[in-house]
Amino acid sequence: MCDDYEYTDPIVVGNERDVPDNGMKQFDFIDSKKVLLIKQKGQLYAVGSNCPHYGAPLQNGVLSEGRIRCPWHGACFDIKTGDIENFPGLDSLLCYKVEISKSGQVGIMTRRKDVGFIKRIRDMVKRDMNDPSTYVVVGGGPAGGICVETLRQQGYAGRIILISKEAYLPYDRVKISKTTNVKIEALQYRQQEFYDEYDIETFLNVEATKVAGGEQTITLSNGISLQYDKMFIATGCAPIIPPITGIDLKNVVIIRTYDDLAAISKAKDETTNAVCLGSSIITLEIAQTLIKQVESVTIVGTTDLIGNEFLGDVIGERVLRLFTDNRVTVIPNSGVSEVLPNMNGEVEKVMLINYNVLPCNLLIIDADVSLNTNFLEGSGLKLNTDGSIDTNIYLRTSIESIYVGGDIANAPVYSIDNEFAVIRNYQIAQNHGRVAAINMVKSRSKILRTVPFFFTKLFGKSFRFSGYGEYTNLIIEGDLENLQFVAYFINNADKVVRVGSCDCNAVVAKFAELQSQGFSLTRKDVENTEMAWTKLIKTG
């Protein structure tokens, strides 16, 4: 089912009888490569065997109607074309042509243009100078980065302008809290040559200052005013500077961007006493990254537990012990009241709200945030009290030519019956970029079907969650103490609003796929059923 391209000669990998209907199996291919054969409704398809995001083996993923979902982080791919359909990630699977002999031997043919590659970029058009239209994308984060690529993949040949207030091309922001000493080129989605090749203009170090929705104009910080035909806005968040005395001292970093990561990398060494202020997953990821590189790490938590907004209280308590077992000191229910300097104007100590003083050569703050939408005042768009903007199921706003996505979008969430919510999530932002771009090219052609998927890895333990909503009860199957479990978060109506796991492979991906098919689970479905609910997923 791959499109018409020039292909290599077939290489036999196995027999079609080896693949069950509505099933899949991995086979050896060439040059140590693997190929994944998938049979659905009697038809055999062949795609790359590993997710292009982080390399997860897709044979352990979730097969549903016409697509496969990555077991690790929930990215989805069309089994007929290999095209990426949901995120995280950027690239698509290699797609192979299948030839079956009379005896059932399966021959696999590779697109000649894909030989030597393990993943591919979806086909994209370039600019047609006869097309006078202009699409503007405001925001260089995950939503904006995906949007500009998708516009070209969908055949839009007009002018595309990407506006980013950072000095860098779109990059993988998830890794900001997971690594140090990394060059920006290693984090960027694509290099400048890619954007040049596909005629995507990039305005870096530039902010939007004013939008006139009626006139379809946008004014930029560099003095340029642009006329647009359609615009996608995904300007994300900015940290709120906390009122702490001495917060402007050297080696105090409010973590948000690559520049903040670079400042941390420069400030630390093996003698550093680092203090991380915050209780979120970002704080936890930073702490676990630093503990192997510095003298000491202390988390000054602002809540009872660490990461409990993401993990829940019960799992959060176990994760707290995971951190203390790994030499990270945790001080809950606290805060920093003052940053104390040395003679060079660098942080030397921090005073907590209980007046205790800690040695500190590097203070990293995971601050609260506000939405970057002030420039839209007077634009004709209605801003909610939190600064977010309402969208419809196509991510279009009240102004027909403007779409929004990412952190600033108060958008329908499919998995909670299309209730509106603002969810700050990397995977959702990337999906917003894709859905908005498709609808910008062809109005009302792609409905938003958001199913939140969250993931992190803490001291070698993989935590995954899918779903959204408040819960009142928690059911844990497995071994919480040894961090190998499945958790069901249940609300007061006995509905499962979220499923989490630690080191249990594809369970959460299965729940995500079930939600994407419109199903929901109740307490009765998950209590003492040995996960029989996973059989509800439609596979053909």
Automatic annotation (TrEMBL):
Alphabetical list of SUPFAM superfamilies matching this protein: FAD/NAD(P)-binding domain, FAD/NAD-linked reductases, dimerisation (C-terminal) domain, ISP domain
Gene Ontology CC, one term: cytoplasm
Domain Rieske: 11-107
Required cofactor names: FAD
Annotated keywords: 2Fe-2S, FAD, Flavoprotein, Iron, Iron-sulfur, Metal-binding, Oxidoreductase
GO MF entry, a single one: 2 iron, 2 sulfur cluster binding
Membership in a protein family: Belongs to the FAD-dependent oxidoreductase family.
Descriptive protein name: Apoptosis-inducing factor 3-like
Source organism: Glossina fuscipes
Gene name, Swiss-Prot/TrEMBL: LOC119635471
